[in-house]
Specification:
Helices cover about 75% and strands about 0% of the residues. It has a single domain, classed as TspO/MBR protein (Ferritin). The radius of gyration is 17 Å and the shape is elongated. The protein has about 160 residues and is mostly helical.
Length: about 160
Amino acid sequence: MTQSLRRPLWSPSSIIALLGFGLAVVIVAVVGGLAVAAPDQQYAALEQPPWAPPPWLFGPVWTVLYVLIAVSGWLVWRRAGLTSPAHVVYAVQLLLNMAWTPLFFAAGLIGPAFAEIVVLWIAIVATIVLFARIDKIAAWLLVPYLAWVTFASALNLAIWVLN
């Protein structure tokens, strides 16, 4: 386990870094969301499995997940900085996260979106493994994200098959 830096929890640089991680996930959410003019209508227009959640559920779930993702990245930053391989994989999974919504909704590429979400799932697993070597809490904070993306992957596949 890498614990070389251990930056103070509430120093000015630590607070700025936490805000930076928060800003990063806000950018991911906003850029992904900008690609979708009316996600509720688009989602509702698709043939869905009976276990599909209602459209209103996605916003609250993703809000919680993005907070966990930001805090997780920040905790690893406190111990390993931004130059660790763990943060490279973290950045990749954020970019993959941001890319899924435009693929699925804006482009209507449900099959390629499924392929992309599988790659996202792998990147999240890799991030959890790398984060666990640095900060176990940071790794555990990503488990709900992995669970939701697992569910979203199954939903994406079901919608692809049905449509």
